[in-house]
Amino acid sequence: MKSLKEHGSLNRRDIDKLLWKKLPDWMTDEQRKIKINNLISELRRNGKIENEGGGRTPIWVVKKL
Predict the structure, then answer these.
(1) Single pTM value for the model
(2) How many domains does the chain have?
């Protein structure tokens, strides 16, 4: 959330770069990808972020109130 607020928007590649190394070393690449998917989905379901990009190029932004 902090990075989204600072940058205004992030695409999936940017989110992966930010979070990838912060996840535990014991996780496989597939587990890390799933974890990041779950984090993005949770923020979206809770109404904190929304997707302003297209289907193949999601751009995530903080949801405006």
Answers:
(1) 0.86
(2) 1
